[in-house]
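User: I'm writing a tutorial on reading structure tokens. Could you give me a worked example: one chain, its sequence, then its tokens, then a sentence or two explaining what the tokens reveal?
Assistant: Sure. Here is the example chain.
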Amino acid sequence: MTKTDKPLDFLWFIPSSGDGSYLGSDALNRPADPGYFREIAQASDRLGYSGVLIPTGAACEEAFILAANLAASTERLKFLVAIRPGTASPAYYARLASTLDRVSNGRLLLNIVVGGSASELAGDGIFLPHDERYAHADEFFQVFNSLIETGHADFDGQYIKAHNATLTLPPVQEPRPPIYFGGSSDAAIDFSAGLVDKYLTWGETPEQVGEKISRVRAAAAAQGREVTFGIRLHFIVRETDDEAWEAADRLISRLSDDTIAAAQENFRTRSDSVGQARMVALHNGDRRKLEVSPNLWAGIGLVRSGAGTALVGSPQTVAARLREYQALGIDTVIASGYPHLEEAYRVAELLFPEIGITLPYKPLRSAFGEKHVFGGGGHLGNIKAKSAS
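And here are its predicted structure tokens:
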């Protein structure tokens, strides 16, 4: 089996700061609501997504608590939840992670988020400069991993000290839940090489992603390790390419130039993230230059921080673009679309058959014997298929 033959591990996204149908507009928006998040998680569970990413930050619901809530309403779904070094001690995070893995019966994935906004980090009491945050995170995870893998830790570092720390109850997964991480700076890549299981990149062009994978793979190999790779992308999938591009245009149809300028200024002044700078450089705030690679559209990044690109097209077109990333070494996709409930269905129903992802359960029979087709929901039910396509 080649890299592109094996089905991708496909995760969805919980929009825990709110959702909507138009970027830069209050029209048809959906505020943060636990019941809505539960709908998305349950749909993702049924449709064949392996897990969901729960974002982190001052604008989001607290990820560990939300994941625990959603785990109780789902059966198979895994939860990619952030650890933010410095916002709590490694011992406290080890207890959080172990408990969540236990109550979800081994469905926890861990996402390291060191942070790219100095002002937000200052609000959390973190004042380290960019590269030093990774030195701090390295010490943090020496304690965290020792605790969650063995139950004990002793460490006396420059940033982190832990004397006879203990964790009594181990996680379900051995030796610990998998660790994911994304970061584009040299310091981030050096940090990832000795620690993470899966390195994540935002949706840059295949050429840029390939170059980054090569750098990370070489850094890991220098430490005698292997790393797998994932990509964070939005999706706009419709039955035809033209319909998909119309949907992309509609998503930003109410987005003003003033709103774009304000968002871009915010990225420049509040973020020291190299990854964010790379996202901005794809379009530089110019809405006339948004297809940055075939079917890779940067319109979302005009106002959204972090992941700002979408694959746009028919199921066949988007599947072909995904196979290009797979050929580079990508085996995991963390996906989203606006609004997230409806787009979870669209991506699963249109794209999954093209990329070999099947339902995680056997569907209930809809009829005896002959095939039936949808009859509109009338009281006489569906109709026998004669020459239906």
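What the tokens reveal: The chain has a mean pLDDT of 93. Residues 40 and 185 are 33 Å apart (CA to CA).
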